[in-house]
Amino acid sequence: MQEFLQGRIWLRELLPFGEEAVEDLIRDGLIGTIPGVTTFRRWHGGTVFLCNRCLSEDQRHFHAFNCRKCGKVCRYCRHCLNMGRVAECDELIYWRGPDRLPAGSPTLTWEGRLTLLQERASVELEESLLSGRPHLLHAVCGAGKTEILFRPVHRLLSEGKRVCIATPRTDVVLELLPRFDKAIGGTVIHGLYGGSGHGEGLAGLVIATAHQLYRFREAFDAVIVDEADAFPYSFDKTLRLAVKKALKPRGVLAVVTATPSPAILSEIGREGGRSVIPVRFHGHPLPVPRTVPLFGYRKKISAGKMPDRLKAWTKERLRNKEPFLIFFPSVPLMEQCHPLFSQLSAEIGAVHASHPDRRSLVLALRGGRIPGLLTTTILERGITIPRLQIAVVGSENAVFDRSAIIQISGRAGRSPEYPDGDVVLFHHGITPEMDAAVREIRRLNREGGKAFGMSAL
Amino acid sequence: MECLLCNSPFSRPPTWMGLFTDRGQSPLCPRCEGGFVPAEGKPPISDWKGTPYEGALDAAVSLYSYNDVMKTYLRQYKFLKDAALAGVFSEALRHAPILKGRTAVPVPMHPERLAERTFPQVEELLVRAGIPFVPLLEKTTARNLGRMGRKERMASDLLFCLAEDAEIRRIDYVLVDDLYTTGTTLHHAAHVLKKSGARSVAALTLIRA
Ligand SMILES: [Zn+2]
Ligand SMILES: [Zn+2]
Ligand SMILES: [Zn+2]
């Protein structure tokens, strides 16, 4: 029971143990309880609610209803609803006995080599984490961020510390889990995401979606937030609080990102360590997106016609047999376009967030079984396809902000054999975000050029 | 605002009505809202011909079919206990013609189930829609119909009895439930009302499975 509860905070009625055993441990003072939702009276009147699991205090997240369990008007938190509803009359449970160390002696089985820049970043990150100082790893897409983490994580685990790598999405957890399993042996690693199990034993390393952090409390000596820029609303307040809550009081935070936002920079602060890797591991610059006007494309598409430039671009990809991704700002626009693309090639697929075949279509593209894929922004991360060419339709839309465009561009030309890739932003007017993205990519490439002693674009 | 089902932010064109009341305003985004599909045809109450419950129900109507969006809705409403979703179908329920001239009776939950769920899901739909109702029935078994076979369901003992102090008049009633699957629940409930003197009993369910 301690293995399960240590570092966790759990809804009492969902505990996988008998009520009697729980009762005993509460009496012995080994388990603490707090109400699911706490009410505060404000000095100038009115009450505010706080969810003790996800720490949301956004009042819009709380819904009041006539509760037949407590017989009162009761509030529950809608923000973390998916993990089992937490209401005022529910109890959350946490371990308050002495902590146990994760079992085993971790060994680093990874035998790959780091580039000089990766090596430096890896050492710097390790130093920060060991000295308890926050760290920012600012690395462009394709810089080989995961490899940089192996040694620092292994080092922490060997000292008996518990480490969590938090990412925004399940895909990333699924991608990282086998890589860490392979790289570090002799330790228990859990992968947690919506719908996963809870893992057996006490894990030294937990790789989890950030939302799973809501279920932890004073659990980790270090939390590494990966792809921090990919969080909705850039690492929003509740998630930041969740990271804080999951950390032990003297725990340390590291953030890995390609595009650090002001919020992230302020989180790391001045005292924090910082490593920058401005080039990709194969040393080639990031493709700089080019902008191509596609004025009035919505009208054209509504009328059932494919804009000429978009058609020409797609045909060229098909002719050269280059795999391509075309990003759309919304599902309806993408669905309108799909039949038009089907006229060019019936095999072109389309995916969006709730698409059940998402993964298999992406794999089909990687395997060359389909020529290209239409997608909404959801696919922008976590896939590497050699020779990939990219177009964005409607890049003036707000969903394509600076960070999204940089991430999207990073998908092109990711393999050493084909470092180039076309990235086209088809637009109805250039936005400041598009400008900012292009400037940032140029700047990173310049710094990368210097670091490598070669001329960049 | 944020969609209650998929959490994505959305805005809707302002209306004059909307300035004064949230009546007629859906708390769901247009995408989720558009995902609900009207039920095809009426529930087949004629399946019950030749059983002891034949004729217990005089009419039955379901509003929506049980498609993926509806499954998501019901899962979140019942299993995640998201009481905030009770108001999603208020408008549609209010306008259901079968309610006209009939007194609504919600199909109740067993007290044990109710304590687990923390709110009576069917009653809550009516409360939020502002539809008056009388709680005339009580559930006698906590058993789950879903676990019984069809034969077993049709032959099982009465699942309901009259609530204490319930007074059945010679008027037209309409039972309200969330789901019409085989119709066992509704036939049992209707049978109790009929036996106690109801003139007619109809059924309205949100969903036809
Ligand atoms: Zn919460
Ligand atoms: Zn309550
Ligand atoms: Zn929605």
TrEMBL record, chain B:
Gene3D superfamilies: 3.40.50.2020. InterPro entries: ComF/GntX_DNA_util-trans, PRTase-like, PRTase_dom. CDD domains: PRTases_typeI. PANTHER family: DNA UTILIZATION PROTEIN YHGH. Belongs to the ComF/GntX family. This is ComF family protein.
